[in-house]
Every structure is written in C-alpha cells, then in structure tokens.
Amino acid sequence: MSALKWFKKLKFGEATAIVITVFTHWVIFYFILINSFKTKAEAAKLTLNWPSEWSILDNYKYVLTYQNNIFLRALGNSIWVTVCTMAVLVLVSATTAFIVQRRGGAITKISDKLILAGLIAPLAIVPTYWVLARLQLANTITGLILVEIALLFPYSTMLYKGYIAAIPREIDEAAIVDGCGPWQLFFKIMVPLIKPITATVIILRTFVVYNDFTNPLYFLSGTKSATVQLCIYTFKSTYSTDWGRMFAAVVLVSIPPLLVFVALHKRIMEGMTMGAVKG
Amino acid sequence: MESVDTARYNESNLKKMLWRFPVTKAFVQKWNGPKHFLKLVIGGQIMNSRLLKKTYSYSLLAPGLLIYLVIFALPTVISFYFAMTRWNLTTAEWTGFQNFITFFSQENTRISVGNTFLFASVTTVGKTVVGLALAVAFCRKGFRSAGYLKGLLYFPVMLSAVTVGIAFSAVLHPSKGILNEFLGWFGIEKIRWLTDGAIAIWTVMLVDFWKTVGINVVIFIAGISAISPEYYEAASLDGASAGKQFCHITLPLIVPSINSAITLSLIGGLKNYDLIWTMTEGGPGYSTEVLGTVTYKLFARGNFGLATAGQVVIFVLVCAIVFPINSYISKKAVTI
C-alpha cells in the first residue's frame, strides 16, 4: 500500500518514466526468468505466459550437470581466473602506482606515460597470443589471467595513483626515518591507507573479468567451454532451440552479478564515477 | 572531484600510523625549533635523496610494469611487424602492405570498417545525449525516483554481453519474439530485427544502448551533483531560464564528465565485439560485421597476418579518433 501511495505522489513525468521501465527492463527480466521454468516445448513459444507445466528442477539440474558437470567446472574456472586476476592486479598496480607517484626521474615518467596510453589503446590480440605461445602459456588459464591483469592494469594503476597522491609524503618519511625498507613501507604503511581504493578497484573490475568473453575466446581457444561465458555461448550454439534450459543457464550466470549489485550498488556507481571523472 | 573514499582518509588515521613507530613519536615530541631540527639533519636522521631512492625502489615498480610490458606493450609494437607478413605463428614471410590492401579490398573487411565507424559514432552520440538528458532530469529538485531509475539503468552494465545477447535474441525473435508481439497490438507488422540486413546493425546498437547507457547516466549524475547549487540560485535571481542555466552553468562545468563519457563510449564502440558476436555473428551477410568480428574470423581460420592487420587498423582508428577528441574536449574544461 505504501508503495502505491509513494507512486501516486510522483509527478506525471516521473511516473511515466517508472512505467516505461516496466516495459524496457522488468518485462525482459521476467521473460527470462519465467521461461527458464518452462519445459522445452512451452519455452519455445517465447511468451510471457505463466507456465502450465513447471520444469524448474529439470532445467536447472540439467544445466548444472550436463556433459559431466561442464558448467560447474567452467564456473570454477571463471571464479579462479577472477580471484587470481584481482589478487595479482591489486598488488602489482598498487606497488607500481606507489613508485610512479612518489619517485621522480625519467624511468618512472616514461612508465607512467606508457601505462596511461594503455587506458585507450586496444590489445593487439594475435601478437599477444604469439607471445603467450612463446612463454608456453597459450591456451592456459595462467595465460588468460596474465592477459586480464595486463588489460586492467592501466585503469587500476591510475586509480591508485590518484589516491596515493592525496596521502601526505610525511607519512612515508616518518616511516623511513624509523628504518622502514621499501617493502615494509608499502605493506605496513601504505596497504592500510589504500584499503578504500582497493575495495573500489575490486568491486569495479571483478565483473569485467567474470563477464569477459572475448579474451577467453581467443586465449583459451583450444577449449570450448572453459569459462562460464564461453560455456553459455557454446550452449547457445549447440542447444539453440532449447530456450528453457538456455535461459536457466543465463539466470545462473547472472546470479553473482545480481547479488553483488543488490548488496553494493551504491559503491559500484560511486566507484564508476571516480575513475571516469578524472579521465 | 573529491571522492568519498579520499574523504575517509582522515587525520586520526595519519596519527595512528605515525605513532606506531617509537622513533617518529620521539621525533615529533622532541621538536625544538629549527636549530634542533638542523642538528637532526646533520646527524643523518633526515632523509637524503639516496635514501629516498632506495626506499622508492624499482623492485616495487617492476612486477606490474613487467606484466604490462610483456603482455600489452610488446605485442602492440610487434603487431606492426606481423601485420606486414604472411604468418602462421611459427614462420612469418614479409609481404609489405599486402595485408592492408587485402583488408581494404575484401568485401567483408571493407564493410566492417564502415560498420565499426557507424556503430561507434551512433552509440556514442546516442548514449551521451540521452545519458545527459536523463541525468539532468534525475538531478532536478523533487525527482524522487532517481535512485531507482539510476540503479535499474546501471544494472545491465553488470551483466555479461553474452547473457544480454541471448536474452535479446529471444525478445527480438522475428516470428514469436515479445517485441513483435507487442508491436502487433498497434498493427505494426513483424519486423525481422536481427535477420534483416538493413536494420540488424541498428538493432544491435539499440541493445548496446540498453546495456551500457547506465554508465553515462551515472557519470553525468556525478558531474552534475558536484556543481554547487549557489550558481543556479544566482542565475535564477538574475532571471536565467532553465535552458540558459543548462547551457551556461551545467554544460561548461561537466566537461570532464562529458569527456570521459564520450571517451569510454567511443572505445567501447570501436572495440565492440562480444555483443555483436552473440547476437548476429556478423550476419546476415556481412551487414553487422565489425572489425572485432572479422578479426576473430580471420584468427579462427588461421589467417594470422591478416588478423593482425585488422587489429592494427583497430589500434590506429582508436588512437586517431579517441586521443584528439579527448584532448579537444578537455581543453574546453572550465576551472573555477
């Protein structure tokens, strides 16, 4: 009731906007969800109707177990790639940003310019594949992780650099006087101070890695269903008429971003603007 | 822009940090004027540059930079060489500009260049204009559902292109999709959204708009809400209309936001690949081929030299379009 009252108090334009979102967004979400509950024959009609026969367990169980649990293994791979990428990315971009921000000199300046260029320049995929092949890392998860790190590195380094610039140098100096070495200074003094920006980087970039389709497609080209995104793409091409199960797969893949978005939407949108406004 | 995160970093934190080290504590407590300070300097207790260099050591810089250089920068450089070869990943035979000539004379690759331009420019303009309009509307006083609308528009950004692509392939299904069903109520005949070569690319652009317009809305809202309300108050006192206020206050002050919105949209548009690939795979015919899709097809076929040439084209396009636009807009920024 209170929601209705709230809605009634809105101005006409605003109320219209909310009604429009029902058609542009909610109908689509509902469509995917309700059809993932239907049997193959009924889902094939692609309607918004209520299912006459429920097939929830069958559809979802099938997605989770088909081809010897390939979906679950892909999910495991995706999570592994995401976690490793984020862990290494946060560490190396924070240390790099720390030195680039604090230390003068030609080398750091050139590094800085090079890293900034990476914000805009696209990845040269085929030569990267060749480099990875030379390192015996082509079509391996490790290779993919390295690519993801390199791709996200400029952006997160930029975020860290901006944040570290606001931390007074006196803190470093005090610690150095006390005999802190480089690593000690970074881990004992800097790490606690840069926690907030680390959270931002992780929140912002985790789903870029999780949702990535292009790079797994190229850099894991030996295997068809290595990550969840590749997996549902393959599912789509193999079972193109089985909409019920396909939508079940879509729902399953979308659950992690949904949960994180519901829990952290304010932080996510805040973080999005942080990097963007500085350009 | 002062971020919230920066604000969280406060003085008490700093003090805690300092006080953790006994010598620092002594140093601060024993501060006895400049003469005493000089003594400490002579005593070697104040930093010299050698010590600083030792502390800000390259060993901290190296790991990240190494990964970046080997996996990102090096391939970019060597792509210019391999683009001029016939290449099967083990042997590369120099062919000069042959790959580029082939690339621009073959029908599918030539079409893909035009489509990439079309896709990037239309989506960028659309997302920037509509995003800005929505953000301005959401930021008006008394607009109470801004949080809901902003969140809903942003949510698809969190979804993967593949899931969005699959969802819209169903929604836009030519014979039984719900969109055609809906349009049928108004007597509009069934439109072959993704299978009609003349409109398929526009359909994909629309889906891309649906998926990513939220980014621009959020960026613009942040830019607009950072403007001090005093400017608007002063302008209304002087009798400036809402339109004038927008042109002379809002627009000049959100130039940095406009810049990043355009830059991000352009890069995204020029590099777009996954959404198009999931929805049409470049078809029907070559009507939705973009640089990303033809390059992948060339790669999958083992035509590595030509694929690299395609990537060099993407690289040159992105650099030639994004860098100048970026620096042009940022020159327009107003500082107060």
Mean pLDDT of chain A: 87
Q: Strand-and-helix sequence of chain A, N→C?
A: HHHHHHHHHHHHH
Strands of chain B, count: 2
What share of residues of chain A is helical?
Answer: over 70%
Radius of gyration of chain B: 28 Å
Average pLDDT of chain B, to the nearest integer? 83
Computed structural class of chain A: mainly alpha
Percentage beta strand of chain A = under 5%
Radius of gyration computed on alpha carbons of chain A: 24 Å
> What characterizes the major β-sheet of chain B?
2 strands, antiparallel
What low-confidence regions of chain B span 5 or more consecutive residues with pLDDT below 50?
1-8
Structural class of chain B: mainly alpha
Bin the helical content of chain B: over 70%
Molecular shape of chain A? globular
Number of helices of chain A: 13
Tally of strands of chain A: 0
Strand order of the largest sheet of chain B: 1-2
Percent of residues in beta strands of chain B: under 5%
Euclidean distance between termini CA atoms of chain B: 12 Å
In words, what does this structure look like?
The complex is a heterodimer of chains A (279) and B (336). In chain A, 79% of the residues lie in helices and 0% in strands. Chain A contains 13 helices and no strands. Chain A has helices at residues 2-9, 12-35, 40-43, 56-102, 106-117, 125-134, 141-165, 169-177, 182-193, 195-210, 214-219, 228-238, 243-278. The radius of gyration of chain A is 24 Å and the shape is globular. The model of chain A has no long low-confidence stretch (mean pLDDT 87). With 336 residues, chain B is mainly alpha-helical. Chain B has 18 helices and 2 strands. Chain B has helices spanning 4-8, 11-19, 22-29, 34-42, 49-55, 58-82, 98-105, 107-138, 146-158, 161-171, 178-185, 200-225, 229-237, 242-253, 255-271, 274-279, 291-300, 304-331, and strands at 85-87, 92-94. A two-stranded antiparallel ribbon of chain B has the order 1-2. The chains are: A mainly alpha (279), B mainly alpha (336). Chains A and B meet through helix 2, helix 4, helix 5, helix 6 and helix 7 of A and helix 1, helix 2, helix 3, helix 5 and helix 6 of B.
